[in-house]
Amino acid sequence: MRASVHDQSILQFSIVRKGGIKILGTMTEYVGILSGIAQKKYQRYLDKELKRQSKEKTESRKRMSKNEVRQKQIRAIDKTAKLKRRRK
């Protein structure tokens, strides 16, 4: 049916002698089926990779905040040193 909402998932099926076609389920564990280069998704790998990326972002934010704190401390030390020089 044109211009109507329909299920766009790719289904796995089996042809049975008695009864015709039996739908076994969706093919969610595969990618690239229609391109002709079907590959099984490695969900565990993908989850692990997302977790690693998240951990790296968190560590990066921590380092950045530590650097900002250190820069503020250095600026404060520089200010006090300049004030001491002016007083002399």
Protein model, in words:
This protein has one helix at 43-87, and strands at residues 11-16, 20-26, 30-31, 39-40. The protein is rod-shaped. The longest helix is centred in the C-terminal third of the chain and has 45 residues, at 43-87. The strands form 2 sheets. The protein has a two-stranded antiparallel ribbon with strand order 1-2. The model has no long low-confidence stretch (mean pLDDT 86). With 88 residues, it is α+β, with helices and mostly antiparallel strands. The protein has one domain (11-87). The protein starts with 10 loop residues before the first strand and ends with a helix.
Q: What Rg, in angstroms, do the CA atoms define?
A: 30 Å
What is the tally of beta strands?
4
- Level of helix content? 40-55%
Q: For the residues shown, what is the average pLDDT?
A: 86
Structural class: alpha+beta
Q: Into how many domains do the coordinates divide?
A: 1
Strand content: 15-25%
Major sheet summary line: 2 strands, antiparallel
Alpha plus pi helix count:
1
Low-confidence stretches: none
What is the string of helix and strand elements?
EEEEH
Question: Separation of termini?
Answer: 89 Å
Strand order of the largest sheet: 1-2
Described by the principal axes of the CA atoms, the overall outline is rod-shaped
List key phrases describing it.
single chain; alpha+beta; two-stranded antiparallel ribbon; 1 helix; 51% helix
